[in-house]
Please model this.
Amino acid sequence: MLLKVEGLVVKYGHIEALHGIDLHVEEGEVVTILGANGAGKSTTLLTISGLIRPEKGSISFNHKPIHKLQPHEIVRLGIAQVPEGRRLFGTLTVRENLLLGAITQKDKQGVARMEDRIYNLFPILKERSSQLAGTLSGGEQQMLAIGRALMSRPKLLLLDEPSLGLAPLLVKSIFETLEEINRNEGVTVLLVEQNARAALSIAHRGYVMETGRIVLSEEAKSLLVNPDVKKAYLGGH
Amino acid sequence: MENFLQQLLNGLSLGGIYALIALGYTMVYGVLKLINFAHGDLFTIGAYVGFTLLVSVGITDSVDPMAALIIMGATVMLFVATLGVGLERAAYRPLRHSPRLSAVVSALGASIFFQNAVMLIYGARFHVYPQGLFTKSTLSLFGLYLPLVKVFVLMVSLVVMTLLYFFIQKTLTGAAIRAVAIDHNAARLVGINVDKVVTIVFVVGPALGGLAGLMVGLLYGQITFTMGWLYGLKAFTAAILGGIGNIPGAMLGGIILGIIESMASAYLSIAWKDAVTFVVLILILTIRPTGILGERIAEKV
Model:
């Protein structure tokens, strides 16, 4: 088991945002967490990355507890996150954004190889490598955000709403790329999405979160036909 | 014309000093969004460390002037950088997640602490840098007689600023500093050790401020434990003028302010030179609060 989250409780001040989350991700899987705004999906990812300290519970990665580590130590162990809203460094160039993604990597040649692989994956980034990240289009920015996260050579890639604000065609292409990264590069993916249809199209399994709890955990294909999920997250068709 | 060029050199050397101090304000503001009010006092300490080396240690007795200048520069920068790192650990890091005002109050406290420490050690009266490092030597250039010390101060500040510019713009550590200044949490998610970046900023900023203190001692001769207040305030104005948080802005703002002040004291009245600085501050805050270079590009969604 690559990632195991047990009994995770997170509080913002006095308000409890997560009331004891259990989830796990196996090596090689694509797992999605579905849910409405404010269900606690982003909080879960930020806690895994070490930006938020849990009140109770544990997170282990490769059987090692990581919930007391600093975010940069967690990245070095092999968990990278593509945060909600991309959070690129807008006044830095595309290339600087990518190289900062590899700041935990000591092997210079490995970093150069990874940069080439990112440019193969997203050729437009190579064309724009000396441009400021803030001048890219929304789709290009999402590619850069994914590329930046991949630069640390993660075993586990966390993505928070990668489809946010993108046109349907771009969403499709981003999700195809994620599938490719998972299949060809062997990167395990934990994906938070409101676009449930797109997420379930590439996921093996899915969790459904409501107000800080996991209420459903099933195979992706059974979630796709689950009447409650259909009604709540797939637009009732 | 000749007078104008002399004043321009005065302005440039003073401006170089303002720029070096302003860089410390702007870099700390960039990564922590905090005005380090103790920065002016670190500048003062730089001047006093230089004084100690010249007078108490008598460094010029054992080595030639050029070597003495290099040793003094290195010692001052190292000493003040160490204080800067200690200041951040003791006064700012524990308050990183507290309301902004707590850190500001802590900064003011640190300023009072440093100022009084200098007064306790050296006493409250003026101290005078011994002359002799630059034995009245002037440089003759295009019929102008330029005091060597002014040319030297200007050169050193230009070289240091160029090195800093390359460090910030061309190295991965420089990119990490800029990234932390843009977005702390995104930087942490990428794997940047934010504490380490903050420490680097508290090495570089105070080192430059301390160096500026040493240069004021060499240039004007007279130092006092309260000197950091006015120099700090002016350098802070320079940082605002260039755009706070913007590194080339601090350099530009410092140079412009130095020239304005020199010209004002030459052509207006020397009594007005400090007032002119603050007229500039008021004007820039009214007309263009983001400063000359302090414009951020629009973020696309």
Summary: Residues 168 and 175 of chain B are 6 Å apart (CA to CA). Confidence is low (pLDDT under 50) at residues 297-301 of chain B.
